Amino acid sequence: MRYITLGTAGHIDHGKSSLVKALTGTDPDRLKEEKERGITIDLGFANLDFPAEDLTVGIVDVPGHERLVRNMLAGAGGIDILMLVIAADEGVMPQSREHLQICELLKIKTGLIALNKADLAEPDWLELVTEEVREFVRGTFLEKAEIIPVSAKTGMNVGLLKEKIKGLALSAKSAKPAGGVFRLPVDRVFTLKGFGTVVTGTVLSGRVRVDEAVEVLPRKIETRVRGIHSHGRSMPEALAGQRAALNLQGVEKEDLQRGDVAVAPGTLRPSFVLDVHLELLKDSPEVKTGDVVHFHLATSETVARVILYGRELLRGGEASYGQMRLKGPVVAQSGDRFVIRRFSPLETIGGGSVLDPSPGRRRRKETLDDLAVYEAGSLKEKLAQKIMKSGMNGVARKELEGWIKAERGEIDSALKGLQKENAVVFMGDAALHASALASFREKSASVLRAFHKANPLKPGMPREELRAAFHMEPKLFAGLLQMSPDMAAEKDLVRLKNFQVALTGVDEGLKKRILDELNAAGMQPPFKDELAKKLSMEGKRLTDVLKLLAKEGLVVRMTDTLYLTRDSYEKMLRLLKEHFSKKPDMTVAEFRDMLGTTRKYALPMLEYLDSNKVTMRVGEIRKSLLKA
Fold it and tell me: Once rounded to an integer, what is the mean pLDDT over residues 16-41?
């Protein structure tokens, strides 16, 4: 089944809703007030089915009053085809103009013009109005659109209009990626007795099935889909292009509102800042950087402060890169269209496209090359640019799928191409640009060189100390280390592969002096601070040499401050074996007497033996874990 969305547009009382009813048999005006006053106040919905063509056209009927443009905008975001309705007895009116401008800004590609109430116009007048309408749409996407005289009241040409809609729908190319991540902007929330909370909207991308989990943003509400209705029928799933009603599990109506977005969990994120390409209408008043506007995207509306890049002022008909700093969060993808309206008085002044829905902080002198790529580059170029901008922390594949409006299969193909070209590498699920990997290697080497220079006797830099220089999560850091051929990671230390601890002749002499002192003291060696005083050494230097001696196996580190020579330690093990060959356990006093030392030394030595599984403490005694 093919699904296309048609939207109405036009001035109040030009008969949009009555024409939808004539086409479909469904009255899109559902509110009591709408029926009493005879005007559309909120969005209305209906559908045209063409079973022989396996086609359903969902219709979004919008209000035409100037004070209800915000409601019109909430319905216009998902439109594939426009039906501009103009009353033959009145001709082009103010909201005809504003609605067409909005549809131009949203880049709707195709449509037709219904000249309604044609039964009220004389042939000559009808001809004049047709010429007026043709002139009105000149230079727009409706320039070559058919103009069909029609009457919702008498049924004149309603059948012809329906056929023309079918033809347009069959040839229209929907911009909604069927293979993208699921995304449904909410345009209506209500409760249904026996079912609970229901949200409706047009599926902008992807699909969702009954019982699947969804996330409602920006509120971050996690829920499940209990049921799906589309075009008046219960369905097992909803697809891109469909009007759909989702029955959500465990969510109250009061928790949701128009402008929320139901998405596949973990794919999209709300944003308060968007990098954009902004264009003003020709007759728009000028916009200065820092001006506040009403910002409309899909079904959401908020207030935004406009920041222009590279200029302070934008005049009517001009365009610029810039940033929207939003009062309330929106859920956007790169490629989305938006509309801005003047803060006061309310009027549509421009719109544009979202280039980056999750921009980093832009440095003052940074070029706008990245935005040029996001605007006009290929999918592969856009993804490469976003990955590069993500730096050393990279970006998850799932985030990339939610970042840009595209088919996931096309994204996957583009990423594979970048991998093949060695432009991008993957660390698990995170994509990193080759330039980020090069930066990591360069910065790591610089940090390690400085460390080795300051600590020539240390075999390496603590891994966590190096990771802290990058503020990077452990798994990603470990993966980058593995991909850095100039570095070696050994347990909790990292060093440059070409680095070796090299002692000078003086240091060799120092090693001998330390070993002589420890050997002479036997089982009662001086603690580190005592040894430093004896040798007139600075404590840090002595620590480095002791660690080096331990690495070389010449001493054994009992604690941070107590070291035994290898000979003394081997003697300890022999005495222990001899003791345990005669007796199954050993007290602290027996150990002390066996070594001819004091409790001050015996306790830390026993703790070392316990931790290294030479002995095992059971209450106040030790048992042997030595192999026979």
Answer: 66
DSSP-derived secondary structure for 135-193 = HHTTTSTTTT--EEE--TTT-TTHHHHHHHHHHHHHH----S-TTS--EEE--EEEEET
Helix, strand, coil percentages, rounded to 5, for the chain: 35, 30, 35
Give me 486's structure tokens: 């100039």
**Range(s) within the chain of domains with CATH label 3.40.50.300:** 2-171
270-369 belongs to CATH 2.40.30.10: yes
Question: Where do you find CATH 1.10.10.10 in the chain?
Answer: 505-624
Instruction: Determine how β-strand 261-263 pairs with β-strand 183-185.
Output: antiparallel
Q: What is the pLDDT of the chain when averaged over all its residues?
A: 89
* pLDDT, position 628: 63
> 550-588: per-residue pLDDT in tens?
888 899 999 999 999 999 999 999 999 999 999 999 999
pLDDT band (50, 70, 90) for residue 37: very low
Q: CA-to-CA distance for 516 and 521, rounded, in angstroms?
A: 9
Q: What is the pLDDT of residue 34?
A: 38
Half-sphere exposure of 97 (CA within 13 A, CB side): 13
The pTM of the full predicted model, rounded to 2 decimals, is: 0.78
pLDDT of residue 98: 87
Q: In 307-433, where does DSSP find H-type helix? A: 369-376, 379-389, 397-403, 408-420
**Where do the CATH 2.40.30.10 domains begin and end in the chain?**
183-263, 270-369
pLDDT digits (tens, 9 = 90+) for 268-279: 999 999 999 999
Q: Which CATH number fits domain 2-171: 3.40.960.10, 3.40.50.410, 3.90.740.10, 3.40.50.300?
A: 3.40.50.300
In sequence order, what are the residues at sequence separation of 6 or more whose Cβ sits closer than 8 angstroms to the Cβ of residue 416?
A: none
CATH class of 505-624: mainly alpha
- Asked if the peptide bond before residue 218 counts as cis, ω within 30 degrees of 0, the response is yes
Q: Which of 324, 179, 205 is nearest to 262 (CA)?
A: 205
CATH number of the 183-263 domain = 2.40.30.10
Secondary element (H or E) of residue 287:
strand 287-288
Spatial CA neighbour of 190 closest among 257, 242, 133: 257
